[in-house]
Design a protein that fits this description.
Helix content: 40-55%
Structural class: alpha/beta
Order of helices and strands: EHEHEHEHHEHHEHHEHEH
Strand order of the largest sheet: 1-2-3-4-5-6-7-8
Bound molecules: phosphoenolpyruvate
Radius of gyration: 17 Å
Largest sheet: 8 strands, parallel, barrel
Distance between the termini: 11 Å
Shape: globular
CATH class: Alpha Beta
Number of domains: 1
Oligomer: single chain
CATH architecture: Alpha-Beta Barrel
CATH superfamily: Aldolase class I
CATH topology: TIM Barrel
Number of helices: 11
Length: 253
């Protein structure tokens, strides 16, 4: 009942010409895909070019961040409505690189999620613990706090939000969470959604795993009952690699 979602987070990579070239090579490879929702999240500067490159395909566009105010004197920021205007349907919020490098906290993440929903964007809410937190048995507590703060007081419809469980120590390191640990945390997230909302919403919300997912390891994650897709950084930069992972999803479950 939950469609798989595979989202590529390009981070601060690719010029417009490179984005266009990616689309030219990627789209024919996924033209026949029916069972997987595919989202590509380029840097802001490539949103327009990707929006036109993806037109007519089923591949959707997402952004990597946004600001929570509607408009005004916020130099350097981009609003949710600007993202919609540029063709985005999704937005990644609370990525650990933003939390760790740019000081984004649960309070700011909450404001962004609220504005994204109000503007009609679907947030991909990133949660996950550091290595130290896992080693101190705090992983579930940290993820619980991140989720509770992010969604506090927000009414959700089924499918509004996807949650990406991304252990910080697995991002860009080549080290995966084990599929058992990833499944355990994704199930925990689903149970928390049931407590915060209801079982129906929890059952319909897509929960992704992210952290060094590649074509040769994605299958074991997608086979888990509570993992509904992947948020992919480094391995989403190559068209053949992202298409291969989408292909695994098309044939999974
Ligand atoms: C990410 O950026 O969300 C991510 C999971 O990165 P990587 O796949 O490179 O670990």
């Amino acid at each position: 009942m939950r469609r798989l979602l595979i989202a590529g987070n390009w981070k601060m990579n690719k010029l417009q010409s490179e984005a266009r070239e990616f689309a030219a090579q990627f789209l024919p490879r996924v033209a026949a895909v029916e069972k997987v929702d595919i989202v590509i999240c380029p840097p802001f500067t490539s949103l327009w070019v990707m929006n036109s490159a993806l037109a007519g395909s089923r591949v959707m566009l997402g952004a990597q961040n946004m600001y929570w105010e509607e408009q005004g004197a916020f130099t350097g920021e981009v609003s949710a409505l600007m993202l919609v205007d540029a063709g985005c349907q999704y937005v990644i919020i609370g990525h650990s690189e933003r939390r760790q490098i740019l000081g984004e906290n649960n309070f700011l993440v909450h404001k962004k999620i609220a504005r994204a929903l109000e503007t009609g964007l679907k947030p991909i809410l990133c949660v996950g613990e550091t290595l130290q937190e896992r080693e101190n048995n705090l992983a579930m507590q940290v993820v619980q706090e991140q989720l509770q703060h992010a969604l506090a007081g927000l009414s959700l419809e089924s499918g509004d939000v996807a949650v990406a469980y991304e252990p910080v120590w697995a991002i860009g390191t080549g080290i995966n969470a084990s599929c058992n640990d990833a499944q355990e945390m994704c199930l925990f997230i689903r149970k928390m959604l049931a407590e915060l909302y209801d079982t129906e919403l929890a059952a319909r919300t897509r929960i992704l795993y992210g952290g060094s997912v590649k074509a040769d390891n994605i299958e074991k994650f997608l086979q888990q009952p509570d993992i509904d897709g992947a948020l992919i950084g480094g391995a989403s930069l190559e068209p053949a690699s992202l298409a291969a992972m989408v292909g695994v999803g098309e044939n999974a479950k």
